[in-house]
Design brief:
Layout (H helix, E strand, L loop, with lengths): L7 H9 L4 E5 L3 H9 L4 E4 L3 H4 L11 H13 L5 E5 L9 H13 L5 E5 L5 H9 L4 E6 L5 H4 L9 H17 L3 E5 L3 H10 L4 E4 L7 E4 L1 H5 L16 H18 L16
Length: about 270
């Protein structure tokens, strides 16, 4: 287990040293402990919790209170990784004061050490306000799920040169506003490489090719613990849905057959006086 606490400055050094950064999502204490012990660099409490844990069809129904709840659980399980919390839909775009208040709640009540905002040049004033108050900000460009309706669905971004040029400008604007890191989602590998080379801050890819400074996946996709079909960029490392189903079916069978509990699962007999 990593002994030193991960910090934003260390992440920037990892980029210059060409040391790949590992980020995964977590939404509960147990998973956070596992990821921390596996030396994951960044643990993201994503609004993806709405889709993989709460049964929503998108991330738009996730509220600030929900993210605070899950962030608090995750932060209690982390000793070394950097804990980043998503700012949910419409919690940072109404005005700068509200954006800062909401970011502060994620830090004070949730234990987050940084927050993540989706968007490009249009959100830099919110990023600057939060950063200037002392809260690190991670940016997120490319496919931004909170704008799914505007984008026409969960579609690959950056297929046209003009789109890549816009993302390059967005990445630079976010870096200039003080963001310490950028998530790049669902773009062709060439776009991921060009954005990564254009900025001095680390990039974390999710469906953005191998040339980003790091990679992130939703933990449920990685473990196969979801009822949904994962995106094509996901590599599944386990099939916990089947493992869990088999275990539960075995328990049901044992209970109904009287095979559980056995003597080993019972307390000692009452002692006579």
């Amino acid at each position: 287990m990593r002994m030193n606490k991960m910090r934003t400055l260390r992440l920037k050094k990892m980029k210059t040293e060409n040391c790949k950064i590992v980020m995964l999502t977590a939404y509960d204490y147990f998973t956070a402990r596992v990821l921390d012990e596996a030396e994951v660099d960044i643990v993201l409490v994503g609004d993806s919790v709405g889709m993989v844990q709460l049964g929503f069809s998108d991330t738009l129904r996730v509220t600030l209170d929900m993210i605070i709840h899950h962030t608090a659980a995750v932060s209690r399980g982390i000793k070394s990784a950097l804990v980043v919390a998503d700012m949910p839909f419409m919690t940072y775009k109404i005005n700068e004061d509200e954006a800062l208040r909401n970011a502060a709640r994620l830090v004070q009540e949730g234990g987050a050490e940084a927050v993540k905002l989706e968007g490009g040049a249009e959100i830099v004033r919110f990023v600057s306000r939060i950063v200037n108050a002392g809260i690190p900000v991670m940016g997120h460009i490319g496919l931004v799920p909170q704008s799914v309706h505007q984008l026409g669905g969960y579609r690959v971004q950056g297929k046209q040169e003009e789109d890549v040029e816009r993302m390059l400008k967005d990445a630079q604007a976010l870096e200039d506003a003080g963001a310490f890191c950028l998530v790049i989602e669902a773009v062709p590998p060439e776009a991921g490489r060009r954005i990564t080379e254009s900025v001095g801050i680390p990039t974390i890819g999710i469906g953005a090719g191998p040339d980003c400074d790091g990679q992130v996946l939703v933990i449920n996709d990685l473990l196969g613990s979801t009822h949904q079909k994962p995106p094509s960029f996901v590599k599944q490392y386990a099939d916990l849905r089947i493992v869990t189903q088999n275990a539960v079916e075995s328990f049901v069978k044992d209970v109904r057959n009287g095979a559980f509990p056995e003597k080993e699962q019972c307390y000692p007999s009452i002692k006579e006086k």
